[in-house]
Write a structure and sequence with these properties.
Length: 285
């Protein structure tokens, strides 16, 4: 009697359903929002908190009336400086707002004029002030020079500077607004727009410099790039003098191309020193 052979063992074949599970190529939308918020916090708010912390460690801001009255101007009397001269300067604002912003002003002297003329904008009364402070001082501190033009070139530009000051559209009582402008930096920015060949702009922490009463799309103030801005509250710039700037609520971050460095809220420009003169007659050019 023959022995029965075992049946062959069948192998299990894989089953194909035709359905595949695709992993999303991009992160969920909420992850992108989180990353944008984190980038905003790091780029725009972290420098502000760092600046406020540094000021707090130094004891906080001093009262506006508490400043060193022994500091005297470095500029010679105008009669000892016969050349024409145009200067733009800036200094930290007073109080906690000094964490975020600087105040800027304009100093002018025509050829053989016997007096310096300093123009500021203040937040009370008629905004535009003449010779409110010594030409290069701001609450007992020397201003940082942003523009310094001398000689025949300055003399040729002074009529346009004077015209820009006379035609400043926010020169009446009640026009001043600390944020987003018009403020002192709005005024000086308007003056600089009248002389684009100066190839100069206010520091990125000159809050209010970008204020305009309408949305703007066009050339930057220096004429070396393009700008898009919504009332100075949101905006972007790309140019040789301006570099790359992103403005969010008046806080500016970006890259400086002409004088390599970065721009951060509260700190302004960090990097290669700007090519500006000092306010002393020996260092001017």
């Amino acid at each position: 009697m023959s022995q029965a052979r075992p049946l062959p063992r069948l192998r299990r074949e894989p089953t194909y359903t035709g359905i595949t599970m695709n992993t999303p190529a991009t992160p969920p939308r909420r992850h992108r929002r989180k990353r944008l918020m984190l980038a905003f916090l790091i780029i725009f708010l972290l420098p502000v908190f760092a600046g406020a912390g540094a000021l707090a460690v130094r004891g906080g801001p001093t009262h506006w009336s508490d400043w060193d009255r022994t500091v005297v101007s470095h500029l010679p009397p105008a009669v000892e400086h016969p050349q024409a001269r145009i200067m733009v300067m800036s200094g930290r604002t007073r109080g906690w707002k000094g964490v975020l912003a600087v105040h800027s002003w304009v100093v002018i002297k025509g050829e053989n004029e016997r007096n310096w003329r300093r123009y500021d904008v203040a937040g009370w009364g008629n905004p535009v002030r003449l010779n409110w402070w010594p030409p290069d001082l701001w609450f007992g501190e020397y201003g940082r020079v942003i523009v310094d033009i001398q000689g025949p070139r300055a003399q040729a530009l002074i009529p346009r500077v004077d015209a820009a000051i006379r035609s400043y559209q926010y020169a009446n009582a009640g026009d001043y607004r600390i944020w987003p402008g018009p403020n002192s930096n709005t005024f000086v920015a308007a003056v600089l727009r009248s002389i684009p060949e100066a190839a100069a702009i206010l520091p990125p922490n000159a809050v209010g410099r970008d204020f305009r009463p309408w949305p703007y799309l066009g050339w930057t103030d220096s004429g070396t790039g393009v700008e898009a801005s919504l009332w100075g509250v949101l905006g972007v710039k790309l140019g040789w003098v301006e570099g790359v700037e992103i403005n969010v609520l008046g806080l500016v971050a970006g890259l400086d191309l002409r004088d390599p460095g970065i721009k951060l809220p509260a700190f302004g420009h960090i990097g290669w020193p700007h090519e500006t003169a000092t306010a002393s007659p020996q260092g001017a050019r």
